[in-house]
Structure formats: C-alpha cells, structure tokens
Amino acid sequence: MLLKTHSNFNLECGTDEAGRGCLAGPVTAAAVILPKSFKNSLLNDSKKLSENKREFLKPIIENDALHFGVAHVFQEEIDTINILNASILAMHKSIAELNTTPEFIIVDGNKFKPYKNIPFETIIKGDCKYLSIAAASILAKTYRDLYMNSIHEEYPMYNWRQNKGYPTKEHREAIKKYGITKYHRKTFRLLTEQLKLDL
Length: 199
Known about the structure:
A divalent metal cation binds at residues 16-17, 108. The protein is α/β, with parallel strands linked by helices. It contains 6 helices and 5 strands.
C-alpha cells in the first residue's frame, strides 16, 4: 500500500519523469498534488501497470488531483544539456504548470535541483512508495506515450507506437536500416556498433 504523504504540508507535490532511457522523443515529467483524502488501491508505479490500467487511471488522477502539470523537454534540448539536466528541467517545468505553488516537493530518484527555494526530498523508488509520485509517473508515461503515438504516424518504420522510442532490438534495426530522424537523440548511443570506425 502506497503512503499518502511524506511531509506534513497540505500542498505536497510528487514529481516523476518518463522516457529517460529512450533513443527518440522527449523526456516527459508530471507533477501532482493530491488531496489528503485521495484513495486508490490500483495506483502504483507506472512501470508495474499495464497500458490499459495506466489509461484507466489517467482521467481519475486528472479529475481527483488538486493540481497537476505535465511538460515535455524535447530531443534538441536533451542533446544540448544532457539527459539528467533535461529530466530535472522537465520536472521543474511540470511543477511550473501547477495552478498553485507547492509547499514541499517529493521527487522520484536521487537527483534534483532546487525549484524556487521550495523544500524538497529525493526518494529512491518513490513511485513505489508515495501516491503523488506514482500518480505523476502515470501522467508522465501516458502523456509521453500519446506524443510518441502521434509521431509514429510520421515515421511508422520505427514502430514508436509499440516501443515508444526505447532501445528495443526492432528500433535499433530500423535505425540501422533507415538512419535517424529529427526526433532521435543524437548524443545517445543509437547503435551498439556506432563507435567502431571503418578505417
């Protein structure tokens, strides 16, 4: 059973990101403030839930949350500032999308940078421990998936609808065959052999 809050603040915001390990597309983050009365036995880390369950929970979270925000940081910026900084930037942007200023921020993982001097705590596996971080992980994942499904139409040969830009064997084979697109992260190791030179 996930815990409700980490602090005693009423406006405690959970934040998480999705798409950090992908070869293409944005890293997407969400921030969620849930009411103290919120209950949902199905809610868990998005990686532990099926796509159907995530899609089922998305409107419940959006409807029941006191406030939520979602933000993408796209591949060009990821290539410029690196994926760790891009992930933190996406979380900052998602918090900025909230209709209020949180009193405390809980972050999934162990890396974060201060946001507007609001106290925060990083929590490893926070998406398995706290409802608001789990809710943020679901919104980040479902919004990112929606974006990847939309760009799939432009480049169906990479099958982003299925792999969402993650480094699957099929995705790497498509990169080998067709090259890269404007959506690929150029600073990532897109192919296992790409460091070998034919001299």
